[in-house]
Specification:
Helices cover about 70% and strands about 0% of the residues. It has about 160 residues and is an all-alpha fold. The protein has a domain at about 10-80: 434 Repressor (Amino-terminal Domain). GO terms for molecular function: DNA binding. This is Helix-turn-helix transcriptional regulator. Keywords: Plasmid.
């Protein structure tokens, strides 16, 4: 199977299917998956199939257990990398929320927008800013920052008086 950097799941699955002399439709029938999904896997359009899918493919394509486990480890490591990248992206997004110098009214408006986005069951809410990809924890951190800025603004008002 090779090491992680050189391994290509899509090519591997395509080779295994061809070695068995099966069509995508036959593999789909044997696994209970759609032939469109098999095609997406072989084209690399789906890169992280579930363990259940890997097990079905392993059975249909006669993939040895050791190789099946290696594929699962490969996918798990890809998932870890994906999560790390997502965390980096989220950190970058949080840094975009520099609210310094905003009025209390503006800060309240932002907080209201966050609340609306969290409670909205559809995406028709007009977004003041994009929170796509932010976890609940990150949104809570933004709200805490907003509260701190409110306190800071109140302090600055009192200090001026």
């Amino acid at each position: 199977m090779g090491n992680r950097e050189q391994f290509d799941l899509s090519k591997y699955l395509l080779e295994k299917r061809k070695q068995k002399g099966l069509s995508q439709t036959q593999v789909a029938n044997d696994t209970g998956l759609s032939s469109a999904y098999i095609s997406m896997l072989e084209k690399g359009e789906r890169k992280r199939p579930t363990q259940a899918v890997i097990k079905k493919l392993a059975t249909a394509l006669s993939i040895p257990n050791i190789e099946m486990l290696q594929i699962m480890e490969y996918i798990a490591s890809m998932e870890e990398d994906h999560v790390k990248e997502k965390d980096k992206d989220t950190s970058k997004q949080i840094k975009l929320f520099d609210l310094t110098g905003l009025t209390e009214a503006s800060i309240n408006q932002i907080q209201n927008q966050i609340d609306q986005l969290k409670s909205s069951e559809n995406n028709s809410v007009i977004r003041f800013f994009d929170v796509t990809g932010l976890s609940e924890k990150d949104i809570e951190r933004v709200k805490e920052e907003i509260e701190l800025l409110k306190i800071r603004n109140e302090y600055m008002k009192l200090k001026k008086d």
